[in-house]
Specification:
alpha/beta, eight-stranded parallel β-barrel, 10 helices, 42% helix, binds 2-phosphoglycolic acid
């Protein structure tokens, strides 16, 4: 497969940061500045909902993503935000099933599936997060865990919509830690995810299917993941909050 011809995608996952709109605006502008107008890399910022409208105002090259979504468009659901709302506020992408939502907010694979369906129906591109909790024990067990997350999360997705889905492989133990996965292991998992996609959809879809790596991605390992890890891009948490660092990661991604 001619992996080096593929476009790169860097998704900056700001999580519940920064604390103010003023800081968000600065970070939007710095990330925009670091994003080349021509080149091989697409950049998206997954910011808190409340900053989307500001992002839409100031960003040109960088796309916007929500970090979560509700599975209904509108209705009596206090505190929830529907997919068409974030679309109209400027988001083109949405992260669904991040492990922090699964672990801290009780999102099951079935909830994730409903969110994926609603997001696609609203015309959003979905970044579906999957990844095992730990690598201890039987390799077949954690592979099965990831397989279930992909299969259930994408159940019911039409062949015509799958091109609007990206899977982010994020081993949970590597998120927010100092220990990223290795490119070798990520390559295995990226191939494994594409095999699941081939079985669910078809081989040609699987071959061009984008997989991202996430979990302590940083300047020092970005190039190795993109070159040797079989992935098309990165989902970057902490490192995306520092304008200099995210700028360097974008630069690395554009080189590979
Ligand atoms: P991290 O987070 O880069 O801070 O490990 C990644 C993520 O949770 O998406």
């Amino acid at each position: 497969m001619m992996r080096d011809k593929r476009r790169r995608l860097v998704v900056a996952n700001w999580k519940c940061n920064p604390a103010t709109l003023v800081e968000a605006r600065k970070l939007f502008l710095a990330t925009e500045k670091a994003t080349p107008s021509r080149g091989n890399v697409d950049v998206a910022i997954a910011c808190p909902y409340i900053y989307l409208a500001e992002g839409k105002k100031v960003l040109r090259r960088v796309k916007l993503a929500a970090q979560n979504i509700f599975w209904e468009e509108t209705g009596a659901y206090t505190g929830e935000v529907g997919p068409r709302m974030v679309r109209s506020a400027g988001a083109s992408h949405v992260i669904v099933g991040h492990s922090e939502r699964r672990e801290r907010f009780g999102e099951t694979n079935e909830i994730v599936r409903d969110k994926v369906g609603a997001a696609l129906a609203a015309g959003l591109c979905v970044v579906l997060c999957v990844g095992e909790r730990s690598r201890e024990g039987d390799a077949a067990a954690y592979a099965a865990f990831v397989k279930e997350e992909v299969q259930v999360g994408l159940r019911g997705v039409a062949k015509s919509s799958i091109r609007n889905v990206v899977v982010a492989y994020e081993p949970i133990w590597a998120i927010g830690s100092d220990e990223a996965d290795t490119p070798e292991r990520t390559l295995e998992m990226a191939l494994y995810v594409r095999k699941i996609i081939a079985d669910m959809f078809d081989r040609s879809i699987a071959q061009s299917f984008p997989v991202l790596y996430g979990g302590s991605a940083n300047v020092g390992n970005a190039r190795a993941f993109l070159r040797d890890g079989g992935v098309d891009g990165l989902l970057v948490g902490r490192a995306s909050l520092d304008p200099k660092i995210i700028g360097k990661i974008i630069e690395e991604a554009n080189k590979v």
